[in-house]
Amino acid sequence: MHRFSDNTPNKRHQPPDTLKTDASRPANTTVWRAAAVLGACLTLLTTLLVVLGAGSASAHGAVSDPPSRHYGCYHRWPNGPSQQMATEDPMCYQAWQADPSAMYNWNGLLRDGGGSDHQAAVPDGTLCSGGLTFNGRYAAMDKPGAWIAPNRPSRFTLNLNDTSSHGADYIRVYSTKQGFDPKTRALRWSDLDLVGQTGRIPTGTRTPVEVNAPGRTGHHVLFTVWKASHADQSYYACSDVNFTDGGTGPTTTTTTPTTTTTTTTTTTTTTGNPSAGCSATLRIASQWSGGFQAEVRVTAGTTAITGWAVNWTFGNGERIDSSWSAAVTTSGSTISARNVAYNGSLGAGTSTSFGFVASGTAGTPTLTCTTS
Fold first, then answer.
1. Which strands form 368-371's sheet, in the order they lie side by side?
2. To 5 degrees, how large is the angle CA 234–CA 235–CA 241?
3. Of all helices (H) and strands (E), which one includes residue 44?
4. Torsion angles phi and psi, residue 3, rounded to 5
5. Are 266 and 367 in contact (CB under 8 A)?
6. Amino acid 355: pLDDT
7. Torsion angle, CA of 337/269/316/176, rounded to 10 degrees?
8. Taking the CB of residue 334, how many other CB atoms lie within 10 A of it?
9. How far apart are CA 167 and CA 141, in angstroms?
10. pLDDT score at 357
């Protein structure tokens, strides 16, 4: 068991005067010594319970397969840091060294409040720590590096361990895009594609989520958002995987998203200087029964721009459920997406992208891009 230091004041236990002066009573001395040892053990146990309990009163679970970083570090190394860990699992070693309480509170990586505005609550670079929740207790999980990554095909079942079985409003699983290097870069929202999701479901010790992440090989990061149903409480988890099949995957009959390559080319409009325009293209990244995920790429014209807006009208009754990397507003079937703070300025000919998940059947809307 990993040892924790006792931060309580060091109170020296003093034996009764009779024990100090009466050498003829060794039995009583032995009893006192035994009591002192028992007291020290109880103090250590109390300290351990405080450490284990801190912040965990409302803690319930984590992604267990493939294991999230904090879950895996605890379950692979329950006895704490060692030279073997430093050699075989250096990222877990640095995490243990940074804050052992994060390991023992593996089921406490959560954030209260915020509803479903996860991008506001969890900024780029802090996704794996839940936006540095609990004053940065899990900050070591954001560190780029050679995290242990079990092999997985592009289609597999992710399991979430909910020890309290409170249920979920939804679970969403995102994967990094091909080309992302988790060894050198902290995770950002723009690095992710949605590759699996559920609606409102009960959860338990093994709650499956079907994942379909085609076109990926090598080390990737899966980012899971679990919106608990018992309170306004969201759990975040980064799991590392090594995709082994080049994104082909076995053919199975599931409700997992299936990738498409639909691209909608848009019209280009300008404001003011005609060369300072922009264009936008929409690509349907994946579809499933009752919904789809889309990516919109915005490209500046021959002059740099400082802001953009993309507008379109859905023709099939589609409805946007969530979005990222853009401020999206809807009015009936009309959609407007504007840049956010970090992706409005584009150099001449350069691009950025945003995405959304929608209900319904994907159509082929015409997009209009304007600059500001």
1. 267-268, 368-371, 308-313, 334-338, 327-331
2. 145
3. helix 26-53
4. -90, 135
5. yes
6. 79
7. -50
8. 11
9. 25
10. 78
Query: Is 356 strand, coil or helix?
Result: strand
pLDDT at 33: 55
CA distance 54 to 45: 14
Residue 340, pLDDT score: 83
CB 279 within 8 A of CB 299: yes
Q: Is 328 left (phi over 0), alpha (psi -120 to 50) or beta?
A: beta
The span from the CA of 197 to the CA of 224, in Å, is 9
* Per-residue pLDDT at 107: 75
Q: What residues have CB less than 8 Å from 122, skipping those under 6 apart?
A: 111, 130, 131, 236
Q: Tell me which amino acid residue 306 is.
A: T
Residues of the chain with pLDDT under 70: 1-59, 164-165, 205, 246-276
| Tokens, residue 353 | 């992208």
Q: What is the DSSP letter of 271?
A: S
Residue 70 region, left (φ>0) first, then alpha (ψ -120 to 50), else beta? alpha
* Cβ-based burial of 148 (10 A; exposed 0-12, middle 13-18, buried ≥19): middle
- What φ, ψ does residue 157 adopt, rounded to 5°? -105, 120
User: Which two structure tokens, joined as six digits, stand for 269?
Assistant: 């409009």
Strands (DSSP E) along the chain, which ranges? Answer: 61-65, 110-112, 151-152, 155-162, 168-176, 192-197, 207-212, 218-228, 233-243, 258-259, 263-265, 267-268, 278-288, 291-300, 308-313, 319-324, 327-331, 334-338, 351-359, 368-371
How confident is the model at residue 275, as a pLDDT?
56
Structure tokens belonging to residue 49: 């319970």
